[in-house]
Design brief:
With about 190 residues, this protein is mostly helical. It folds into two domains: about 15-115, Rna Polymerase Sigma Factor, Chain: A, CATH 1.10.1740.10; about 120-193, Arc Repressor Mutant, subunit A, CATH 1.10.10. Helices cover about 65% and strands about 0% of the residues. The chain has helices at about 15-25, 30-50, 55-70, 80-105, 120-125, 125-140, 140-150, 155-165, 170-190. The N and C termini lie far apart (about 55 Å).
């Protein structure tokens, strides 16, 4: 863009403004930068959210397609990662409901065998990591998601509330309850949850 076209040539846009403008313009360089910056976090979040590693690549791809298609809806007053995780969460929840309907509709009444290797345990490397992954896997999904968004993705309570569609007080309660369960697991051994 020529310098004369910019309304305030001395002003530097904030990161969120730059992202919002780039998404509206479908700037390929910006999209590439966002994918590079957030891909790992998005994959990790979806694995923890769904508790499965299969289908995550499809969810990630669909998330980025939605980001491209709905880039003009991104509001620069919120952090990009909160908006990104909200899109990913909605897609994961829709996929979960769709899989549930498909299982109920199976003619022989069989349910598919669960994943034999938990993605939590497969990703863990040390003994403490294995214990933590196992404890997280046993938490109710709402508590696990709140803990992951707060401590792993470093989102604020307000951002998490926007993503999960719950009041801040509910998010805070889920975090508190999840931490209490993790603490009791850590002190009392593997069967405390």
């Amino acid at each position: 863009m020529p310098a004369a076209a910019m309304p305030f040539p001395d002003a530097t846009p904030t990161e969120t403004q730059r992202i919002a403008r780039g998404l509206r313009q479908k700037d390929a360089a910006l999209i590439g930068e966002l994918v590079e910056r957030y891909q790992y976090r998005l994959v990790r979040y979806l694995i923890y959210l769904t508790g499965r590693s299969d289908n995550v690549e499809d969810l990630v791809q669909e998330t980025w397609l939605r980001v491209l298609a709905r880039g003009n809806q991104y509001e620069e007053r919120s952090r990009f990662e909160a908006w990104l995780f909200s899109i990913a969460r909605n897609l994961a929840m829709d996929g979960g409901r769709r899989r549930q309907r498909e299982r109920l509709a199976e003619p022989d009444g069989r349910t598919p065998a669960p994943d034999t290797a938990s993605p939590f345990l497969a990703a863990a490397k040390g003994e403490d990591a294995v214990r933590l992954a196992a404890a997280l896997a046993r938490l109710e999904p709402a508590c696990r998601e709140a803990l992951l968004l707060r401590f792993q993705e470093d989102l604020s309570l307000q951002e998490i509330a926007g993503i999960v569609g719950a009041p801040v007080s509910t998010v805070s309660s889920r975090i508190y309850r999840g931490l209490a369960l993790l603490r009791s697991h850590w002190k009392g051994g593997s069967n405390a949850l």
